[in-house]
Amino acid sequence: MIRTFNEHLLRPVSSLDGLWDFLPVGGSGGTEVPELYPRRIEVPSAWETLPDLRGFRGIGWYRKTIRLASKGNLRLVFGGVSHTATVFVDGQQTGHHYDAFTPFDVVLPHLESGEHELVVKVDNTFGDHSALHIPNDYYTYGGITRSVELHEVGDLFLDKLFATPKRDESGWSLSCRVRIRNIGQTARAGTLCLSVVDHSATLDLPEVAPGASVEVETELFPDSVETWSSETPVLYMLEARLMRDGICVDDKRDRVGFREIRVEGPALLLNSEPLRLRGFNRHEDHPQFGCAVPPAGMALDLAIFEDLHCNFLRTSHYPNDQRLLDMCDERGIYVWEESHSRQTPFQKPMFDAQIRQSTIEMVENHFNHPCILMWGSLNECDTKSDYGVEVHREVLGLLKQLDSSRPTTFAGHLGTSDRCLGFADIVSWNIYVGWYLGQPERTAADLEERLRWLDSPESLGGANKPLIISEFGAGAIPGVRNPQADPWSEEFQCVVLDEALKVYLNHPRVTGAAIWQFCDVRVTREGNSETYNAYSAMGRPRCMNNKGVVDEYRRPKLSYEVVKRHFQSFQTD
Ligand code: ADA
User: Fold this and answer.
1) Residue 351 maps to a domain
2) Together in a domain, 229 and 180
3) Which atom of ligand 1 is the closest one to the Cα of 430?
4) Do both 62 and 188 map to the same domain?
5) Which residue segment(s) compose the domain that 40 sits in?
6) In ligand 1, which atom is closest to the CA atom of 538?
7) Is 411 domain-assigned?
């Protein structure tokens, strides 16, 4: 399952999760679809979780036989493939997708009944073909790492639902935009029925040309709905039905929460109330599952968030599995989701196309989650050069164009050299006083110096905006303990986090604070160049980023209780 609920009650959908034939191949892996597959692999999974493939970077060929009871259209939906998928059906290439962290579909029109061979070539290699997946301070796994579904659709089907809750003096309404797609060879028309709670609307569709899509919009006015927030995470099902000649030929559902997020000067308002965010940056990573953390693992992580009195999760540094977002909707955990980028060089040949695609696919697929309060991108990228300014203008402008209902941000690390704050609705800083910069006791003074600049014209548009301290923390190798609190000890991490939380959670100018990071995660072993070795140059003992408050197995470090004390007292203030 790609979601925690059924997106379709009428449309036939089956899961392709389970064992697939598998052939790992080094190098480029060739382009000929293999005949022989010597082993099998679980889907979804990362191939690094197989004992003999722990560090395998190359090509994995996957094969599955699919059966069609009668001639028709199939739509394959992939939750995520890491990091590049090339899809073949009966030996013919039918689809291609880059980036592990966004879903994609492959439509197979007019397939004959009977068996068909589905093959997916998966590539997790680095090089000029990959601008976002690069040697980095997290690991790029390989595999079909999120669920796969097989949908049976008619020529005309419901492709996307976009729902934006709005509030005025008369109450809540839901602004709906629906994308309908025609994969047939003749023009098609139909009627669309939309309903939420007790209100529905019916629209006649314009004729949809063969191979085209159309979008129609309407407003729904449900009576007496409850407002969504962390205190009351009430969700409602938006139902769409596509009718032709009075018969329902397709359906699509998604959950909505009635909430409104707004920036007003330096305040971030949720349902007109000032919001104060406290939580973590979380990578999708686990030593037993890689990035393919199963739903039970996601739920465990969120249970730890709740135990620590968190209300905020940043999906550092890429769009997350939709089931994690569904769980945040259900639990009322606020989310900053960002398109895939961390210290990403803009000069790589595929960067522009790939960051644009990751951004569009993130917003279009995750649009309806009430938990997502802001969109981000370009973590710690170039905000100094003229070219860097142009990229930030474009990507943040694209986020706003895709969704004008949510504020935008990016996590910067260049302090007073940053020339891009004017493009963001929310200013976000990654600050490592006590780890990369100076001593922990400098935290408060450092913040005051930054604020003096921020609220001056020199910040080029950063003044009078909400401020999030989007990263702060220190490394602690699990089990390294010493009373003098030397760096890398768990005691030292406590000192840094205690000081940072005391300052950031209580400063009136700080809207939110996200600790770097939730759990220890695997980092890429390969360096960015011959001389750069992650496990030494970046100070990554164990080839891990050790700044978690829990280790990679979610075992608490000493700092767990420090964080809990601060977040709990902050919550009750
Ligand atoms: C940066 C980066 C994080 C992580 C962190 C660290 O702020 O955004 O991904 O690498 O540094 O641990 O140093």
Assistant:
1) yes
2) yes
3) 7
4) no
5) 13-153
6) 13
7) yes
Tell me if 545 CB under 6 Å of ligand 1: yes
Does the residue 320 lie in any domain?
yes
Same domain flag for 273 and 377: yes
Instruction: Give the H or E element holding residue 427.
Output: strand 426-430
Per-residue pLDDT tens for 537-573? Answer: 568 999 899 999 999 999 999 999 999 999 999 765 5
Atom index in ligand 1 nearest the CA of residue 413 equals 7
Provide the 3-class DSSP secondary structure of residue 538. coil
For the record, the structure tokens of 504 come out as: 């950031």
CA 149 to chain centre: 19
Q: Are 25 and 119 in contact (CB under 8 A)?
A: no
Residues 491 and 567 in one domain: yes
For 36-82, what is each residue's pLDDT tens digit? 999 999 999 999 999 999 999 999 999 999 999 999 999 999 999 99
Pocket test for ligand 1, best of 471, 521, 538 (most atoms within 8 A of CB): 471
Contact 75, 130 (CB under 8 A): no
Q: Is residue 322 included in any domain, yes or no?
A: yes
CA distance 557 to 476: 8
**pLDDT at 525 (0 to 100):** 83
Indicate the pairing of strand 334-338 with strand 312-314.
Answer: parallel
CATH code of the domain covering residue 236: 2.60.40.10
State the pLDDT at residue 573. 52
Same-domain check for residues 248 and 344: no
Number of domains forming the structure of the chain: 3
137 lines ligand 1 (CB under 6 A): yes
Together in a domain, 304 and 444: yes
The CA 336 to ligand 1 mean position distance, Å, reads 16
Q: Between vectors from CA 532 to CA 526 and to CA 534, what angle results, nearest 5°?
A: 55
* Distance between CA atoms of residues 523 and 191, nearest Å: 51
CA separation for the pair 95, 106 (Å, rounded): 6
Closest ligand 1 atom, residue 136 Cα: 10
Domain boundary among 256, 288, 315: 256
- Phi then psi dihedrals of residue 140, to 5 deg: -95, 105
Give pLDDT tens digits for 71-119: 999 999 999 999 999 999 999 999 999 999 999 999 999 999 999 999 9
Domain end point (choices 238, 256, 274): 256
How far lies 428's CA from each of 22, 280, 423, 548, in Å? Answer: 43, 14, 12, 20
Residue nearest (by alpha carbon) to ligand 1 atom 3: 137
- Does residue 277 share a domain with residue 252? no
Same domain, 213 and 339: no
Cβ 285 under 6 angstroms from ligand 1: no
The tally of CA atoms less than 13 A away on the side-chain side of residue 148 is: 26
Place of tokens 């550092």: 316
The pLDDT assigned to 26 comes to: 82
